[in-house]
Amino acid sequence: MNAYRDTLKKRLKLLIALNALAIFCICVTLWLSQLINHGEQMLDGMMTGYQIGIFLGLQMIMVIMMIRYRKAIQNDQLLKKMQIYETDERNKWIQGEIGAISFKLIVSGTLLGSVIAGFFNQTIFLTLFCMTIFIVMVQLGLKLYYQNKY
Fold first, then answer.
1. Residue 36 and residue 104: Cα distance in Å, rounded?
2. Among 37, 76, 92, 124, whose Cα sits 20 to 30 Å from the Cα of 27?
3. Which of 58, 70, 75 shows the shortest CA–CA distance to 12?
4. Residue 84 and residue 130: Cα distance in Å, rounded?
5. How many other CB atoms sit within 10 Å of the CB of residue 55?
6. What is the pTM (predicted TM-score) of this model?
7. What is Dmax (Cα atoms) for the chain?
8. C-alpha angle with apex 90: 100 to 102, nearest 5 degrees?
9. CA–CA separation, 32 vs 65, rounded Å?
10. Does 130 score more than 90 pLDDT?
């Protein structure tokens, strides 16, 4: 149990660092959006809002995870419940079936690409944005399918 508690403490430290990085990325995005003027006001505002929204969404997820980890570190029952959930073979098998790691990498890559493309080309930004939505919808569909099947 103490080993898992130490693992959660390491994850908590990593989340704090990533949260600081997200704040930095928001500041850079705001600065670059003011610096780079594409000329098309509607899409410029959409791209900036999308980029900041991605970073804020990631921050919200990280904050929720940080709260859960802190509660679990302080409460042995919650810690045990979280450890059992993470080591549950059924959940691991379902994640393996849908190729969770590859989907996460693809979604992360298209999100990052769309954020970067938003600074340079509106067409590429919109293409990557639509591609990300499609990939997430496929992932959600597969997850629901396998959860109901097994």
1. 30
2. 124
3. 70
4. 37
5. 19
6. 0.65
7. 57
8. 10
9. 29
10. yes
Long-range Cβ contacts of 11-17 (<8 Å, 24+ apart)? 11/65, 11/69, 12/66, 12/69, 12/70, 12/73, 15/62, 15/65, 15/66, 15/69, 16/66
Position of tokens 């705001």? 30
Residue whose tokens read 């900036």: 48
Mutual angle of helices 41-74 and 100-117, in 10-degree steps: 140
User: What CA–CA distance (Å, rounded) separates 68 from 25?
Assistant: 24
Q: Is 1 exposed, middle or buried (0-12, 13-18, 19+ CB in 10 A)?
A: exposed
Tokens for 78, please give them.
């919650």
